[in-house]
Design a protein that fits this description.
The chain is mainly alpha-helical. Helices cover 66% and strands 0% of the residues.
């Protein structure tokens, strides 16, 4: 049996038997999500929850002061940051900011893979955020939320994590990255959807994780799937589908004209989105 088939067979078997070890949501993200779902939560109590994680506090303040929030008065405390972001958005934003904690490994080879995946993810997120902000500005269409988009783009390929964890037990796989890429292409979507369901995320997240790279799946209305794909294309991924995705964006009237994606404004929005996670 070839190495590639061995890894695929093991993964498929574990998926089918429900024995594949899925990553767990970072503890601070769990706490924030639980607090956000409490109908009696208030801004002060939420600031206290976030205050338990110093790096999350710092990032929350940073995001509050970014062009993402579109305000000019500087925020300096967690409670001000929570007030500015608002309880509805905080659940997704805090989760997005905590996600980096999952992309770690004690194995050097796996770690370098995970670093690459995370860096690539950030480019997809920044591009998707920039594209959505331009779309909202041009069309005034606010049916989709920027905070949901941010998190959806960040978890779009979360399914690679268990694949890399499994591959860690088969070091020979890393000698031939093609094996790994085949496993990722075939299984990451299915695994990603399982993780989203396991974490209790809403359907839009399940749909993005499962289908972002499967162009046979389309939505009639403009969706988070469209923006994730545009983000991936703008981040230099998914080149084989580039023209299809860009043409669809015009057909679905995400943009009247694709020249906006070459504009200075796009670049500025992209840079400031990327800076949030830096």
């Amino acid at each position: 049996m070839s190495t590639e088939n061995a890894l695929l067979t093991i993964l498929v078997e574990k998926i089918n038997n429900d024995t594949l070890v899925l990553p767990t949501l970072p503890a601070i993200a769990l706490k924030v999500r639980k607090a956000a779902d409490d109908p009696n939560i208030n801004l002060n109590a939420m600031a206290d929850v976030i205050g338990q994680d110093l790096s999350l506090c710092a990032r929350m303040i940073k995001i509050s002061n970014s062009s993402y929030m579109g305000r000019s008065v500087k925020v300096t405390s967690t409670s001000q940051a929570v007030t500015r972001i608002g309880l509805r958005q905080i659940k997704n934003i805090a989760t997005a900011l905590a996600m980096e904690q999952l992309f770690v490994s004690k194995n050097d080879i796996v770690k370098s893979y995970l670093d690459d995946v995370w860096q690539q993810n950030l480019k997809v997120v920044a591009a998707a955020m920039a594209v959505m902000q331009l779309h909202i500005k041009e069309t005034k269409n606010r049916t989709l939320n920027l905070d949901t988009m941010t998190l959806a783009a960040l978890v779009h390929n979360i399914g690679v994590l268990p694949i890399l964890t499994e591959a860690e037990r088969h070091p020979e796989v890393f000698a031939n990255p093609t094996f790994l890429n085949v496993a990722i292409d075939k299984l990451a979507g299915r695994i990603g959807a399982s993780i989203m369901r396991e974490w209790g995320f809403e359907n839009e997240f399940v749909s993005v994780a499962r289908s972002w790279s499967d162009m046979s799946v389309q939505t009639n209305l403009i969706s988070y799937l469209d923006f994730t794909r545009l983000g991936a294309v703008m981040a230099g991924q998914f080149d084989s589908q580039k023209d299809t995705i860009l043409n669809l964006a015009v057909q679905k009237e995400i943009f009247k004209d694709l020249s906006v994606l070459q504009s200075d404004e796009y670049q500025e929005l992209y840079d400031s989105a990327l800076a949030i996670f830096a």
